[in-house]
Amino acid sequence: MSASKQSENFGKWKSPITAEMIASKSISFNDIHMDQGILYWCESRPEDKGRNVIVSSDENQKYTDETSSEFNVGTSVHGYGGGAFYIKKQMLYFADMKTGLVYQKNISNQKIKAIVEPGEYRYADFCSDPEHKFLYCIRKDDTGKNQFPTTEIVRIFIENKKVEVLLTGADFYSNVTISPNGKKISWLQWDHPNMPWDATELWLADISEDGSLINNKNLSEEKKQSYYQPTWSHDSQLFVSSDKTGYWNIYQYSDKKFINLYERNVDFGRPMWITGTRCFEFLSANEIICCYSENGIWKTGTLRLDNKVFTEHNNSLTCIYNIVAENNRVAFIGGNPTLAPAIIISNKNNLNSIEILRNSIDKSIENEFISLPELIKFQTRDLKKAYAFYYPPKNPLYCPKENELPPLIVKVHGGPTANADYMLTPKIQYYTSRGYAYVEVNYRGSTGYGREYRDQLKGKWGIIDVEDCIDCALYLCELKKADKDKLIISGSSSGGFTVLSSLAFHNVYKCGSCTYGIADLIAMTEHIHKFEAYYDQGLLGGSVQDTREIYFNRSPINSAHKIKSPVIFFHGDKDPVVHVSQTYKIADALNKNNIYNETFIFKEEGHGFRNAENIVISLTKELDFYSKVL
């Protein structure tokens, strides 16, 4: 095939990977559960305006939509949702995004009924008692229409729709879970100004005969730490992940102390942006199946409780979002460099082997067009280490012109306490198959590298993230992997803030793409939602009242006159996290300074685009923009 390759400039290659293919033939997954041999998951479908549907698959891999078109499964608890459905003993429970109601579906007879009365509430993170009389969950109370609504733990009387508040007073709750013997309840809670990856509290209480909670006890140790995913063993022993060593490791709580089951500098946990994520489950009474991040790459292992022997399983997965287990079956939401997020099953008898149940995209991307990522470890300007995933241009039909280097898209992930994933991402292939190099930077502050790495961004947001991205880009230029005169920076949400900061305070990039990004940090605090209400203080080193000068100086809007590179903007007009006014303000400032920009505001879209038509527009317009300005 090499003899027939066409010589063409980078960025001008024609590709079979189209925007329509990515938008209309892709779905995304979130929650996953297993019950009596049946696997259930929730998927979002762009062709149906992003509607979330619960799907099941039996042992014969027969798919069934368990929720009809009248429902959109989801919740707004904690702002970003998650944990919107639960199933036990063939009783499926789910929250409807539109009405806020919780429904029960009897899988046996297919009957569906609401189990709460209509009201200004939102529910998430469900579990039930062994007798299946109650559904325990987190509830957000919007009755007061407050900017910071009350969050509480409630139990729903399944038969009569009564809802009883069990716990209130903390700013946030999550992971309410009942022991298999029905005698104990555990949960996490935390208060402002902490984010759940900064510090959470692990609580335990007894459930009395009348159902009330007694002997409530905070199990948290004195050292500030983030607890993650309290889980009960088959014999009602409590296990939890904690990062007190600097990494999320798995502990057993026994005899009033925490026992580290397997100490290692890897993360058996992830930041709780959404509820309901899991990184370990009991495969049997004596064995835990788990996933963990080592230098940003996820792996799978099992841990025996009797001898503490840990076994790694080479199942090819490098990114795992969620894991469930029942009897001998294990299921993941995960992927790898040639597999976009998928629903995957495995068997206890051969955990090195996986079977794909459902792909997030069809098999339209042929392997010969897939650019494989290279793990990049680079030195920052202050002599620290940072990480990235680099994707070279790849298209079997083309070769570059002699001595030409490719344009490089530097992608900044959001959060900023999040991370770039080591797996197949169709949008990346959309660009690499057209002759662009692409790098996703896990700058300092990203997760998957331990707490110390995550905390380096504190007080330095808008500085370290910006510098790490620039240092990564210039390092790749030194390696002759990118053209220094054709560097592009792209990001969304907080990543958009890094984009605008990079363009305002440095002269490195030829152009930028900003999707629902933050331009004005002071204005951001006026529209902020409860979950992130104090997040900015940790990232910027103080409140806007006490450190207003920092907020002002680091806001790109106040240095918009320094931006000399073209920018393309995308935003949803119903974004509850970053108000659309942020994009209007910075675009207007660029217009006044005669800096070329393009702005696209999508109606009825929020923080992340769900409608296939809008996804196509954003992809095609962004590509056209790069072609114009490079």
UniProtKB/TrEMBL annotation:
It comes from Fluviispira multicolorata. This is Prolyl oligopeptidase family serine peptidase. GO terms for molecular function: serine-type peptidase activity. Residues 427-630 form the Peptidase S9 prolyl oligopeptidase catalytic domain. InterPro entries: 6-blade_b-propeller_TolB-like (IPR011042), AB_hydrolase_fold (IPR029058), Peptidase_S9_cat (IPR001375), Xaa-Pro_dipeptidyl-ppase/CocE (IPR050585). PANTHER family: PEPTIDASE S9 PROLYL OLIGOPEPTIDASE, PEPTIDASE S9 PROLYL OLIGOPEPTIDASE CATALYTIC DOMAIN-CONTAINING PROTEIN. One of its GO terms (biological process) is proteolysis.
